[in-house]
Amino acid sequence: MIHIISNAWAAAPAAGAPPQGAAGLFQFLPFVLIVVLMYFLIMRPQSKRAREQRAMLAALVAGDEVVMAGGLLGRLTEVGPQYSKAEVASGVVVQIQTSSVQLVLPKGTIGKVQ
To answer: What's the pLDDT score for residue 75?
Structure first.
């Protein structure tokens, strides 16, 4: 019987070559670095911003001057956990979602704008 495929012999590792386990570790190092980089550049700042937004919404009180998500300026007249009321002009009160408040303005800002 003729053997077409010869026997495969394992080659001895070259002198100074890293062991196979260490080579596997170095192959995954770029992936680990990418994950760490993504954490510090994307996930950490985003969670910090969300934490600040939640704290700002929890501190809202009636009388605060705010900017809503659509760019509407108003003074809060009632604050609730989900819905609030904001006066956007003299005698014009609109109901908004409390989560749509994007920014709390310094007192007196709306009077300067109008």
So the answer is: 95
Q: Indicate whether 114 pLDDT > 60.
A: no
How far, in Å, CA of 41 to CA of 83, rounded? 33
Question: Is 99 a residue whose pLDDT tops 70?
Answer: yes
Could you tell me the two tokens for 18?
């890293």
Residues 6+ apart with CB under 8 A from 93: 77, 85, 86, 87
Place of tokens 């001895």: 12
- On whether the CB atoms of residues 67 and 105 are closer than 8 A, the answer is yes
Helix then strand count (H, E) for the chain reads: 3, 5
